[in-house]
Design brief:
CATH superfamily of the largest domain in chain A: PurM-like C-terminal domain
Number of domains of chain A: 2
Number of helices of chain A: 8
Oligomer: homodimer
Order of helices and strands of chain A: HEEEEHEHEEEHHEHEHEHEEE
Strand content of chain A: 15-25%
Radius of gyration of chain A: 21 Å
CATH architecture of the largest domain in chain A: Alpha-Beta Complex
Helix content of chain A: 25-40%
Chain lengths: 346, 346
């Protein structure tokens, strides 16, 4: 699907106008000549206010996420890849098989139509890769200066086809915490791109769908207790959210958490701690100790889990804190971030 | 649920900060001390990336809508009431029983926390009235000058518990078109409020949930062929969208379309045609001629349908146009709006 295949009249309308969100002819043209070109033909029954779906089961997961990342395009992805993978991953973290996404655009008057088409293509490609369909959408346009090019909301529906209860309260003392790879790349990629920083090696976002690797774990019979993807606030915030619901101490070894050398250097230069930096293709899984080696093997065989490793465990101690054992063996509390380390990273 | 019942520290944080969307302590405080106060306690299993739901059936409707109305508060409603009723109504138009909504906030740095709380309460009250639950959410904050106070996305899931196929392609020649009341109030209410216009009578938005009146029609066995709510672009655009999918001529009588006197006057002053002005509690239903009187009776017994009436019919002619018979008996084509009559009305 290249630029040429889009019948939208880019020369006539090189930029988004307020009328493209007004419910009239221009909005209809945008939908028919751009969106339905990417996301599939108009249904034979006609476009309607909502989409009727027959699910394979009535036990579902439902989630929503808005994306306001700046800049819109960055090494390793763009706001479109984020918008799909972010919601796919939120569904996967409940052990659901993601099936359907909605797509809500808030466009700023003046956005280049070519940029919109690039993002639409990216959404389509990413959705295909993750095995999900965009089934319903909405477009609004706000006046120039009241947005930032484009904001995207995706909501998602997935089906739950197993008997596990993958939630914080299922975490038990003795559980082992696994991660599927190195941390900090997404946040640093976006920040470097935003600030125009040029490192020796271009750091690319780790943005990736996690539903496939998760389904392998579940299908293999791993008794996954909880999972969480490491987005805003990074690994440290995800662990802190979970300890609060679990009322157990989590112990993590700093040396065990993989950080690429170039990410560590960039963090040192910019004054960030990679444990707090956002990722978009990383998750932690809480699994019983006696299944952890097998779970790691499964993860490592998948492209999204080649760098998988064990980073810590859940203690019997009921204090809801995360302790970090440093390289030199000292232990300190790894707190939730109090302010905003990296704004508008997703 | 009044202001006093909210434990959020308004004095300490009178305005939204970037950190309220940063994934750290401040965001957690906002969620726990404001959002979960309104939308129900944190589940015993812990807050998670997506919400697991057991639906009563696996045939569902799914829809999404973003809301960017300006101003945020207007006579008869606010962005919160719109965000709930808009999505509830999109589900109802497919004949679905709306059950669950997601809620995505894009907040602008500097928004008054008291305004946010007022909107949150409004969402809660409106959701309760419509019988839907907010089950998952997301909050992002964009820098000052990159938003307009607040944008809201709601996506919704409803269940379909009947055998009708309520879609444009079900419309047949001979169908009668019913409307549930007068048109044009929402758009005029918002526009008058935005422009500071002071009419003799305050025109209030018609914003209302339509799921209940729709379910009465379906339960009574009315063979509803299609429905559509009359939002952006108004009655004229809704009719035009449908004729394109149906390939039949629709004939509407101008005199039959109810318009309140004050709305007609305001439209005359501002240069609008009420047939193109947005509504948020109005819909049209296509029903077989021989059931139309009974359908009207049912609608009129409901508070949302007291002004229900017949406005037109579907002809056997296969030209996909909407013709309007004027007060003096002349007939003209009622086209889809080409530009943007009223920007940011929803």
């Amino acid at each position: 699907m290249d630029s040429i295949s889009c019948p939208f009249p880019f020369q006539q309308y090189p930029h988004v106008l307020l009328a493209h969100g007004g419910g009239g002819k221009l909005m209809q043209q945008l939908i028919e000549k751009m969106f339905t070109v990417a996301f599939g033909p108009k249904p034979a029954t006609g476009l309607h206010d909502s989409t009727v779906l027959n699910l394979p089961t009535s036990k579902i997961a439902f989630t929503t996420d808005s994306f306001v990342v700046r800049p819109l395009f960055f090494p390793g992805g763009d706001i479109g890849t984020l918008a799909v993978n972010g919601t796919v991953n939120d569904l996967a973290m409940s052990g659901a098989r993601p099936l359907y996404l909605s797509l809500g655009f808030i466009l700023e008057e003046g956005l280049e139509m070519e940029s919109l088409w690039r993002i639409v293509r990216s959404i389509k490609t990413t959705a295909d890769a993750a095995g999900v369909k965009i089934v319903t959408g909405d477009t609004k346009v706000v006046d120039r200066g009241k947005g930032d090019g484009i904001y995207i909301n995706t909501s998602g529906i997935g089906v739950i086809e197993h008997g596990l209860s993958i939630v914080p309260s299922s975490v038990k003392a003795g559980d082992v915490i696994l991660i599927n790879g190195d941390v900090g790349r997404h946040g640093i990629a976006v920040m470097a791109s935003r600030e125009g920083l040029d490192f020796e090696t271009t750091i690319e976002s780790d943005c990736a769908p996690l539903n496939d690797i998760v389904s392998l774990l579940i299908k293999a019979g791993i008794d996954v207790h909880c999972m969480r993807d490491l987005t805003r606030g990074g690994l440290a915030s995800a662990l802190n959210e979970i300890v609060q619901d679990v009322s157990r101490t989590i112990q993590v070894s700093e040396a065990a958490v993989p950080v690429r050398e170039e990410v560590a250097s960039a963090c040192a230069i910019m004054g960030f701690d990679p444990l707090y930096v956002a990722n978009e293709g990383r998750f932690i899984a809480f699994v019983p100790e006696d299944q952890s080696s097998r779970a790691l093997e499964i993860m490592r065989r998948h492209p999204a889990g080649q760098g998988a490793c064990r980073i810590g465990e859940v203690l019997a101690d009921s204090r809801p804190v995360v302790t970090l054992t440093s390289y030199i063996g000292a232990s300190r509390i790894l707190d939730m971030i109090s302010g905003q380390q990296l704004p508008r990273i997703c």
